[in-house]
Amino acid sequence: QILAPLEIQPSEMVAKAAAALLLLSALSSPRAGVAETLQECPGSALFASSISGTKYCNLGKKTFPQCYTDCMAISFLMPCLMRAEDSNLMFSNVTDAEHIWTGHYQNPGSTEVDEGWKWLSGCPTTLSNWSPGQPDDALCRDEKVAVVSREDGGGWRDVEASRTDVSCVCESRSTGHG
Fold first, then answer.
1. pLDDT 10s digits, 35-47
2. Half-sphere exposure of 133 (CA within 13 A, CB side)
3. Disulfide engineering: 161 pairs with which of 1, 18, 64, 170, CB 3.0-4.6 Å?
4. Class of the 15-33+42-172 domain?
């Protein structure tokens, strides 16, 4: 049986190209698009880990590039989840979140879905907590960033950077991860 070639609508190509450009611009220009009024974490959004001393700031639902630039604006980083306790703490403090952005992204030149993953904050690249079957670039989407998923018990999923239904939680690792 002969398969018909995959048809991609021009609007899909434009959307994918726009998402890739958003990610690349966020990674190369951390201050781009930062709201001028956002200079520190609102007090009610701040919480901390009693284990590591790490402080977290919940900035609500945003795209990956918006989360990155807003975390940088308040001198925080996108989170590096080194322990299950980190994910549990986030979900217990951000009760409306199904997914939370991590600072984990795939190098734009990577051709395999499971290669080229790095941390924006310089966390060890050997750290891994992918949910079963992930990363997968589901339905051939351009899924180049990772979220931590409540449904997967704190496991990671690869998703598109343009998603607007993912919570942005930033971390201040000035006291270090224990």
1. 444 578 988 899 9
2. 3
3. 64
4. alpha beta
